Amino acid sequence: MLSPYGLEIIESCLTCKLRADKIFCNLPPQSVQALEAIKYTTAYPKGAVLFVEGQAPRGVFILCRGRVKLSICSSDGKTLILKIAEAGEVLGLSASVSGKPYELTAETLDPCQVNFVKREDFLRFLREHNDVCLRVAEQLSEKYNTACHEIRSLGLSHSAAEKLAKLLLEWSMKNGGARQPDRMKLTLTHEEIAQMIGTSRETVTRLFADFKKRQLIQLKGSTLVIRNRAGLENLVSP
Known about the structure:
By secondary structure, the chain is α+β, with helices and mostly antiparallel strands.
């Protein structure tokens, strides 16, 4: 029989806004109970580092609330942000399955609630629950496809303007279910946006000014409005 905490997890999964395709959303009750027995729940402040690129894998981090920045760093100190992880995502999955060092550094962008599962417990959990094992395989495949998309976007884009236009359009698509899909909150700094598209902070600031001048976007504080979607799309190579 499930404990009150297990029932709370199930109820949270039914009522929260996490997408159903996340690994640990909508699990069978038996799997939820098994996960409950091996997880450690921790609250992290903004700016906390969950794990560092090159570190031996300690386990997986299930992000329940908040956002986490996933980045890689070159030998000369340049940083590239590969993804902003959101609630429902599992971090450190590939490293924990393969036993190889973490490929990325994970740092919280907001105060976060995270469930941590030790690597040895997680691997045993996969062996004993085939339904979860299949979901992990699907997630790793999705991560591979996402990585290919990011490489294509960064490597084949012709200019920083095209990369920024792509990023704004992608953010707008994620907001597509809202009443105002062309209105979004900018929660990243110009430096962080630069790290996402592989350019400098100064270039991002200049591009935002240029987009505003051309009336492609409008900025009011941290709120960005896409005024000319077709104009932004014209900046992106087919």
